[in-house]
Amino acid sequence: MRMTKLYMPTLREVPSEAEIPSHQLLMRAGMIRKLVSGVYSYLPLGHRVLKKVEQIVREEMDASGSQEVLMSAIQPSELWKESNRWDDFGPEMFRLHDRNEREFCLGPTHEEIFTDLIRYEVNSYKQLPMNLYQIQTKYRDEKRPRFGLIRSREFIMKDAYSFDQDEAGMMNAYQEMWDAYDRIFTRLGMKYRVVEGDAGAMGNGDSHEFTAMCEVGESNVAYCDACDFAATDEKAETIVPIAAQEAEEKELEKVDTPDVGTIEDLKKFFDMGADRFVKTLLFQAKDRVVAACIPGHREINETKLMNAIGVAEHEFEMADAETVKRVTNAEVGFAGPVGLDKEVEILVDRRVLEMKNFVIGANETDRHLINANYGRDFEGRVIDDLLVVRVGDVCPKCGKPLVMDRGIEVGNIFQLGTKYSTALSATYLDQNGKKQLIWMGSYGVGVSRSVASIIEQNHDEHGIVWPAVVAPFHVVVTPINVKNDEQRELAEALYEELKAAGVEVILDDRKERPGVKLKDAELIGFPIRIAVGRGAAEGKVEFVLRKDVKNKDEIAQADVLARVKEELNKQGLNL
RNA sequence: CGGGGUGUAGCGCAGUUUGGUAGCGCAUCUGGUUUGGGACCAGAGGGUCGCGGGUUCAAAUCCUGCCACCCCGACCA
User: Fold this and answer.
1) Contact A202, A181 (CB under 8 A)
2) For strand B, which residues in window 188-217 of chain A come within 7 Å by CB?
3) How far is the CA of A136 from the C1' of B26 (A)?
4) ipTM score above 0.90
5) Strand B–CB A436 distance below 7 A
6) Is A543 within 8 Å of A502 (Cβ atoms)?
7) Which one of 3.30.930.10, 3.40.50.300, 1.10.443.10, 3.40.50.12280 gives the CATH number of domain A31-236+404-455?
8) What does pLDDT average to over chain A?
């Protein structure tokens, strides 16, 4: 490819909308452009990278025995109604109708559609197990698209679905996908971690997330250096030791606490640690209000709470001030489990049962109750764990302190069980001629998100540093001065030689000054740069690796091809 | 959806407070000089100032409604 022919609009300045490195660099390197919020176009260089990531995913999926198909992005509402997700998915689903007012959506995921694909044709145990996948565009109307390709409303995903006779088969398929994902993310050169996740709207079995570790990640993972425990902060079980408590239950007493509405205020007012309080948080869940009582020094885990009360995320939010006033008869900040409006269900974190003589809101403005005790003063539904994990909490597996880090979820695997086969009646006949439900799993890789994640993990102050396996081109040949015949001719000769040898090479034949070409080469991040400059007269060129631009190696023209091959092979390409 | 902010040329921005002929840098085009780290000189093109309504002799600027985009929060590949 010649750069003069390539549509590669690089930018000197960072577009003001881009905040994080991958978004800024993808824009500046002329790889993507925004169409509208959360929707991007891929330009030639970005498209090449995307296709390479797709190809690695495809190869490993094929190697695992999964078969590629391609389903429509547009899906009829009927299937989603069968599984109840037409309502459960909520406003994140892009919905539309046809001219006859028939309802459709743009697929945010494809469990229903794949289940439908196989339910009429898979009838026998002899057809199982089976695993199908596609690499296709997904649509989710995110509340807040951001960070370029990391949270977009349209994105490329590889989604796979496994179909098995029984739970053991599903577990086996799950493990195979886990292994395939390990191979995929290893080949992509990612630093990643496999963590336990919350299944959310997908199903109720186990799930794991593959998380590319980086500072700008939106996932928080807690993990243990001493054992293999790793989980998202939503999922991680918390172990919260409760300090020794007073032996005797004291008498419940109402005290004036003027303008003391937060835990911080209470600590000062009573001169006590936050662990002597129980905070009561009110939530609007669908059409009802629930209260969660948790130790004052800890934070509520909304995911665990939603799971406990069985509502979907879009039906759940912190109660607004008006609701709080209605159910507590007090200003915000004085809610407590004693004397709360009867309509409010009270959920209590188990740790509260170990606490004695604690302070709670009195459901009266500027008043608190002291010496409250569970059982004697109030009761509720006890939940084992409603708390969010914190650095320094002990590992639930081995008891050592936990560490936390951020990352981007680039893959996930879910055990679906029979959720969708039940809803859509996907069954087969077993050896005894008996009808059985198919056991399913679903497995996603965010392909476009992986592209952004690779950049987050591979860039420097000059630009992107592509791993050779996904670089848009392997080598850029840069004649320093195209008006110099020797340089131009030598560069052309090298370009032809490398191209003929199967190297993906791009020739920077633009009539630009050297600075512009070198800056662009570093911005885009070609793994190898061959600059043809002063040495051209003696048949010498400069060989530079993008990951080590300081190190410039003067080599003879005759040695270039061998050197390029050697380096690319070292970086995992087979030439 | 809540909170904050921004919309002026392809990109980055000034101008809005105090209404009066729409500007700067980069990019683009022409000619010339230059060629190892985002050149220089001379010239040129490009904007219904997000959209609608209002106030005014006069609106990028004031008022008002809407829209889009970005950031912080809760969700996900």
Assistant:
1) no
2) 198, 200-202, 209-210
3) 38
4) yes
5) no
6) no
7) 3.30.930.10
8) 93
